[in-house]
Design a protein that fits this description.
This protein is of the alpha+beta class. Helix content is about 65%, strand content about 15%.
Length: about 170
């Protein structure tokens, strides 16, 4: 039979976990606006997320002035906004994880701690889920950063190929 102290611990942990699940919703990003300034070469993309509006920027490298495009700059800016979003999600999950670990340590360091307690099991599950979420967000940041770098590095070659094909057609 569960004593009153354990009952309140279980109820409290269930409430905390429900709140955290609402905060850690699915990844949602929708582009709201994109802008490319031809004079400055600055691209700006704003995306709406479950965390609010996030803006990503990309600036034109002076060497690329002749191959500048609205599409490429805004694509890079959108990727940067995605990276910011993933970093923010990871940071939030880390903030949520720390108090749960402290509560877990407090509860499990008691002399008469029952490790099969429903509250303890729920807490362990939530800690595991948050640690997994953090790992996923960090992995997404790394993947997006690599894709961005690859897109930036491959752009001059792509433009040269297009220009060569265009010149062949003109001749």
């Amino acid at each position: 039979m569960m004593n009153i102290e354990n009952y309140f611990i279980v109820v409290y942990i269930q409430m905390v976990c429900q709140i955290m699940r609402r905060i850690n919703m699915k990844i949602q990003m929708k582009t709201i606006s994109s802008d490319y300034n031809e004079e400055t070469g600055l691209s700006k993309v704003t995306v709406a997320t479950d965390l609010g509006l996030i803006t990503g920027y990309a600036s034109l490298h002076p060497e690329d002035a002749e191959i500048a495009s609205h599409f490429a700059g805004c694509r890079y800016a959108e990727m940067r906004a995605g990276i910011k979003y993933m970093k923010a999600k990871a940071r939030i999950a880390k903030y949520q994880l720390e108090p749960l670990k402290r509560v877990y340590n407090i509860l499990t360091n008691k002399k008469n701690c029952d490790m099969n307690n429903k509250g303890i099991k729920l807490l362990e599950k939530e800690i595991y889920t948050l640690e997994d979420d953090i790992e996923t967000y960090n992995s997404n940041v790394k993947t997006l950063s690599e894709r961005l770098q690859n897109a930036i590095n491959s752009r001059p070659g792509l433009v040269n190929d297009m220009m060569n094909k265009k010149n062949k057609i003109i001749k």
